[in-house]
Specification:
Length: 141
């Protein structure tokens, strides 16, 4: 019972930590991150960095809280897929193979979270239970 109840929460937290940490780091090192993005030829690098920071932090917080996880996953994938292809492309640089494969594993985990939902310990489930109780009380009146 413990495993079924808490494993999704632990998985969401483990999946989110890297995004929140890098989102904060990218915000702190905004100019350096902007330069890295500009160096690979991506236009509007400041706007891209701003989006990256927002997507990583909002998506990570969404996962940890278990609230609107499908939206959180979409935000994270909007960041992670292009970042993987641009910065960890094993065809362009064979030394990036491990980072590329790790990102594929993270993408797989995010897709599992999106497919199966946040699990029983989440704000989303708490809100649904609360709404269900309110509806039951109203129908009893």
């Amino acid at each position: 019972m413990f495993i079924q109840k808490y494993t999704p929460l632990i998985a969401r937290i483990f999946s989110a930590v890297i995004f929140i940490q890098t989102g904060i780091a990218n915000a702190i090192e905004f100019a350096d991150t902007q330069q890295q993005i500009a160096d690979v030829g991506i236009p509007l690098s400041a706007l891209v960095v701003l989006c990256v920071v927002i997507f990583e932090i909002a998506g990570g917080v969404s996962l940890i809280l278990g609230y609107k996880v499908q939206i959180g996953v979409i935000l994270l994938l909007l960041f992670l897929v292009p970042a993987t292809l641009v910065f960890h492309n094993p065809v362009a640089d064979p030394a990036e193979t491990i980072s590329f494969l790790k990102n594929l594993a993270i993408i797989g985990g995010l897709l599992m979270i999106a497919a199966h939902g946040p699990g029983p310990v989440s704000l989303e489930r708490s809100a649904a239970r609360s709404k269900s109780l309110q509806h039951s009380e109203e129908s009893m009146r």
